[in-house]
């Protein structure tokens, strides 16, 4: 049985390394391929090394295990005419619209090697988002029975994680400065929480680079990683018309 570990216990581990891929705007299906490749590598290595993909996505809708078709019906014709694809995924959470200006973060952490359980992982991720928001001068909190992170203006982040062979995958999404009209085209949650962004909360343009730096640093700290290696490209990717796609 898994036992809960405190952050102080995690920080006692030395020389843990984490690879951070800052990839810009990445086609969602390409990200799934990268994630699958990284999962296979980590299964074979059985070490405490971690991988995090940080990117944005062209417009696409994803639906997690708690989602339903009813969340999409209101504007389904608009989605089809706008050529916005829908992906049904084995992650937590419901339906989400993704678009440039929304930061997508996919941490692949080996929970067994880190000595943590699923609850520890989810709590650590949520606290990393809350602490990142505090650095942006935004007060944030979680609410019971939801996967969202909230400010006084509404929900600005969603956690949609999954676990495979005790390795985390999928991740979470932070609305930094997306087109909120686009994100609000779907009923993103069952609790009628208003969607918002860091830019809307701050009433000024939030810095994507600042949010990226902060959330990566917070994740490394929360999960006890001392060595952080940054990459701005991945060998499986190449650029096509400003978007990034996996080689066939």
From TrEMBL:
Catalyzed reactions per annotation: octanoyl-[ACP] + L-lysyl-[protein] = N(6)-octanoyl-L-lysyl-[protein] + holo-[ACP] + H(+)
Pfam family, any one: LplA-B_cat
Protein's name according to its UniProt entry: Octanoyltransferase
EC number: 2.3.1.181
One Gene Ontology molecular-function label: lipoyl(octanoyl) transferase activity
Pathway the protein acts in: Protein modification; protein lipoylation via endogenous pathway; protein N(6)-(lipoyl)lysine from octanoyl-[acyl-carrier-protein]: step 1/2
Keywords (A to Z) from UniProt: Acyltransferase, Transferase
Sequence intervals crossing the membrane: none
Top EC class of this enzyme: transferase
Residue stretches making up the BPL/LPL catalytic domain: 46-227
Purpose of the protein: Catalyzes the transfer of endogenously produced octanoic acid from octanoyl-acyl-carrier-protein onto the lipoyl domains of lipoate-dependent enzymes. Lipoyl-ACP can also act as a substrate although octanoyl-ACP is likely to be the physiological substrate.
Family of the protein in this entry: Belongs to the LipB family.
Top-level taxon of the source organism: Bacteria
Matching InterPro entries: aa-tRNA-synth_II/BPL/LPL, BPL_LPL_catalytic, Octanoyltransferase
GO biological process: protein lipoylation
Gene3D superfamilies xref list: Bira Bifunctional Protein, Domain 2
